Each structure stands twice: as C-alpha cells, then as structure tokens.
Amino acid sequence: MLRNAISRDGFSIAAGVHDGLSARIAESGGFDVLWASGLGISASYAVPDDSILTMTEFLNAARAMNDATELPVLADCDTGFGDTRNVARMIDQYERAGVAGVCIEDKVFPKRNSLGDGSQDQETVEGFCAKLEAAKKAQSTSDFVVVARIETFIAGGDRADAVRRADAYVGAGADAILIHSKSKDGAEILDFGRTWENKHTPLLAVPTTYPQVDAEQLKAAGFSLAIYANQALRASITAMQKSLIHISQHGSTVGLESDIAAVSDVFQLQN
Ligand code: SPV
Ligand code: MG
C-alpha cells in the first residue's frame, strides 16, 4: 500500500516507469513503488513533457503499470490537467483505474518539465490549496494518496516560501509533500528535510540532479521516499541506441546477441 510505503517511519524507493513493461522490470528490480513519470510517458510518445499529452494518455499508461504489477502506482499528474473540476474528475478516473495515489505540482498550466531551462510560473498558494481540497473531496477510498509537489526551488524561490507552501498544502489535506529541486548538490533539499517542523507528513524527493545524495542521507534528513524518476528511461534509450547502431553498422546482430535480452526473456516479462 502506498500509504505504508511512504510512512515517515520507514524509507522506500520508487522507480520512474512509462509503461507496463518498464513497470514489471522495476518490480523485479526490487522497488517498492512505481512512479508513473510524466517525463517518461511523454518521452514514450516522443513529445516534450510540457502538458502536451492528455489526461487520458497519462491515465492509460498508469493503468498498464498497475495491471502489470502488484506495486502501488504513484501517478505524476502534472498540474492536475486544469482547474479544480478537472482535478476532481482526474481523481475519480485514477482511483477507478486502481492507481494508489497521484502527485500534483504547484505550477500553472501549461507546465514545462522542471529540469529544463527557462522560467516556471508557480501557482498561487490559494489556487493550489483549492486543487488539493478538490482532490481530497473527490477521492472515494481512504487509502488513496494525494501528494502535493512544491516547485519553489525550481522557480528560484527560497526556503521560507517552500515552508509556507508545505504548511498550507498539508492544511489543505495533502497526504505527503514532494519537494523538488534541480540543484547540483541537493543541499536545499536536505536542509528542507532537516528543518521543516512538521515531522509527521511524508516527504518525497527526486534525486536526479544530485545523484551523490544517497538514500541513507535522504532518510537521515527525514525523507521517506526517493523517486528515481528517469533512470530506467535513460538506460533504455542508451541500450536501444547502442543496439540499433550496431545492427545498422554491421548489418548483423553478431556481437550483439549476448548484450540484449533473449526472446525468452521477453516472453517471461509478458507472463
Ligand atoms: C517526471 O518524472 O515526470 C517528473 C520528475 O515530474 S522531473 O522530470 O524531475 O520533473
Ligand atoms: Mg513530471
């Protein structure tokens, strides 16, 4: 259950995945939670992670992950696909699909991926709290989790703004806080975790740009879930590129066969 996996008493890891196959590989790799990555799902359609795909496209990918595994799926739902009414329908649809929880971020639609260059406009605290309240009101099972993602550091804001937002979002009903950053050293994330006075609400991090901050450090700073959001996607891109270039250059798969999964491995992943 997602609620247990992100409890403040323990520490879990989530793999960012983009379809049923990557979800199943993450499950066999020992992860606790699946992150239905907006970046990954967008990349699987070869479009930017800039609010291009529809909710239904993201939902279909999350449903495939949920159907393929026993792991709880935490779906990256960007800004909630609209205003409070869109958020309410989104919750209904994700919950019906069996997804364990959703994460919405406090940027304005259309959002841009957080790791790119360029400015990011943040939603007002009041506007985002209204979305969280709509989400919590719309859920029909008590186990469903709504994560509030704070983009203050991405937008160039300071710790005081991040803390103000975290407190407000918990007040509006958020079950967990994801504090995002694209800093190179992760210092602002570790500082936030250590100093945020709320020691009950689960804290989530996405250590993409600060890979030297390991799970132990995140746990010690008060985090309960580390989301490895895009490593599976990046690994698969490298593997596909290397393999396909080999074939086009050599006109054969000799020298490649031992580096790629056997067809029987594919069958196994397909059950
Ligand atoms: C994603 O995986 O889509 C995320 C994390 O939202 S990030 O790409 O860092 O914004
Ligand atoms: Mg995303």
From TrEMBL:
It holds the Pfam family PEP_mutase. GO terms for molecular function: lyase activity. It comes from the Bacteria. InterPro entries: ICL/PEPM, Pyrv/PenolPyrv_kinase-like_dom, Pyrv_kinase-like_dom_sf. Keywords: Lyase. The keyword Lyase applies. Belongs to the isocitrate lyase/PEP mutase superfamily. PEP mutase family. This is Isocitrate lyase/phosphoenolpyruvate mutase family protein. It comes from Streptomyces filamentosus (Streptomyces roseosporus).
